[in-house]
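Worked Example 4.2. Consider the chain below.
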Amino acid sequence: MISPELLRRFPFFAPFSSQQLAEFAMISDEYSTDEAEVLFEECQAATHLFLLLEGNVDLYYKTEDPFRPKGSKEFSVGIINPGEVFSVSSLIDPYVLNATAKASEPSKYVKMDAVPLRKMMEEDHQLGFLLMQQVTKVLMERLAYTRVQLAAAWA
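Applying the procedure from the previous section yields the following structure tokens:
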């Protein structure tokens, strides 16, 4: 469990009441990681929502050629900075991760258990609405970043 005050410091959690932040805090824990540690991998079940506290995390896709096992490549699809949430797939059915996350430097983060979080969303529709509004903002920012990357690749 973490302090609700920790969550209150980040814009993603601004719309939530003190009671809601306390509920989030009860299903959350703080972790540290070393550089190059993989936090999760693409195609795994999305079981947690993450909040980066310190450091940086790279998001990337892997491509693999079954005929050339040494020919796999990694493509950067995003960078997570302190204060940003990631693994929002944990709140969107079918709850499967669509990228791999790896710390690019020693980092600290919060992991929020998605199963009780989704249950809270089902029981409290106002909380669910606010949470999905925040997730949508995150996804729109990531979409804009992807568009910039695509434009740069075609230029």
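The longest strand covers residues 68-80. The chain has one domain: 4-154. Compare this with Example 4.1 before moving on.
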